[in-house]
Amino acid sequence: MYAFTFERPATTADAAKLAAAGAQVLAGGQTLLASMKLRLTNPEKLADLGGIADLAGIRREGNALVIGAMARHAAVATNAEVVSAVPALADLAGRIGDRQVRTMGTLGGSVANNDPAACYPTAVLALGATILTTQRQIAADDFFTGMFSTALKGGELITAISFPVTPRAAYMKFKQPASRFAMVGVFVAQTDAGVRVAVTGAGNGVFRHTALEDALNKSFTPEAAAAVKIDTSALNSDIHASAAYRANLISVQTQRAVQKILG
Fold first, then answer.
1. Can you give the pTM of this predicted structure?
2. What are the tens digits of pLDDT across the range 109-139?
């Protein structure tokens, strides 16, 4: 690693000031620290959010579940409010990486990083969540803008994410065995506005699959999902899987998610 200074702000306001002044924010560190070790990034100053207790809370607010940006994956997976209000989100969190990753990784860090194979962005997008920041509120459909890219402005920090209570949802993931990231992950949710389907691992970033949504809004069955032809033109093809293989995984994982919701 290169030399850098380390700050540990005690409040969100202090963290926002440091970020606005150019400090690199450290949440769980699962991506940032590895990048620093490989000398792929060289921040001159780090601002560690781990000391801000307010950012780690999980609470129910009416028909919404508000999860702090610094909530660890392990906490999301086991929290009684999450398990009750959005059980699919708890299930997703409990299958991220391994125990060490789940102990250190954070919801806000994952969503802000927007790795194209990360799990949390599918939940945010499929559930129609709202990202709360130090400056504003951002709808999920407006937040993810591309590979490792989001609508966050310079110095803007995620403070929490508000998820609508959605008991009828499921996440199915086909793991890349070495990294445990999703080769393809599909989150299906029956929301008040209709069925939403979000896919990760298959393209340059998380995306909604409108053809599957349309089919499932007409008939919420595995057969309806199976009848949808998955376009391969925008899907990844690499050493792990071809675009055609990923297209098949999208179909199969969607069918399995629907069947899980139906019981």
1. 0.95
2. 999 999 999 999 999 999 999 999 999 999 9
Q: pLDDT tens digits, residue range 51-62?
A: 999 999 999 999
| Structure tokens that stand for 16 in this block | 């926002």
According to DSSP, the residues that pair with 197 across neighbouring strands are 188
Q: What's the fold here for domain 169-262?
A: Enolase-like; domain 1 (3.30.390)
Can you tell me the distance from the alpha carbon of 131 to that of 82, in angstroms, rounded to the nearest whole number?
17
Domain ranges of the chain: 169-262
Q: Give 102's contacts (C-beta < 8 A, 6+ positions apart).
A: 72, 73, 74, 77, 93, 94, 96
